Amino acid sequence: MPSHAWYTTLVAQDPHNRHAVQWSNGSWTVIDYSAGLHVLDLHNEAKAFDFTTKNISNEERNHNAGYIYFRIQEEERSLIPLLPGYVAFTTAGKNRFKLSILESNNQLLFFWEEFGLDVSYSNRKAHGVERLAFHCMLKKYNLESNTTIRSILGLYDPQVINKLQRLVYEKFPLRYPTIFQMESPAVLSENLQNNAKKKEETLHRSLK
C-alpha cells in the first residue's frame, strides 16, 4: 500500500484494529474492529436482507435480517453476517463515508456519515441511521444501481468474511458447520474454552 494513501493513514492511526481491503475495481475500504464485534440472537435465523420483493414494505420484509447473501460456489459461505461493532471507512460515488453497524433491542441499526471529499474523515457533511443495511443511504445518493452493500462494507476479503462467520459459528454451531468442522480438535477445544471464558466473564460482570 502506498505510504501516502488515505487508507494507509487510517490504518496507521490504529493498526491493531484497522484493516485495509481492496475491491475488485481497485477501490479501498478500511475496516475498524475497535468497537468489538457482537453476535445477536437474530443471527441464528440466518435471514438475509432482500430488497427485491415489491408487494411488501422493505421494513417488514427485512425484520430480523442479519446477513447479506452473495452466491458463491459453496452455498453455506454465501451468507455473510452483518455484526454490530463492524465499522467501515469507504468511498461511494464522489463521496467518502463512515459506515457503522449498531444494535438496539436485538435489531441491527446502520449509521452512516458522509464526509464529502475529506480524506481524513473528520469534516462530516451529513449523517443518518436506518434499519435496511445502508440501502436507504445508497438510494439517497443515487448509488444503488452500481454500488452494493457488500462492496461499500469491504466484504470481499475471505479473511474478513471468515472472521465474521466464525463468530456466528462459535455462538450458534448449527450455522456454518461444514466450514469449520474440519478444524483440528485442538483448535475446536481452544474455541470452546474461549467461548466459555467469555460467558463466565459476562456472568461475573452481571453479578457485580
TrEMBL record:
It comes from the Eukaryota. The lineage of its organism: Eukaryota, Fungi, Fungi incertae sedis, Mucoromycota, Glomeromycotina. This is Uncharacterized protein.
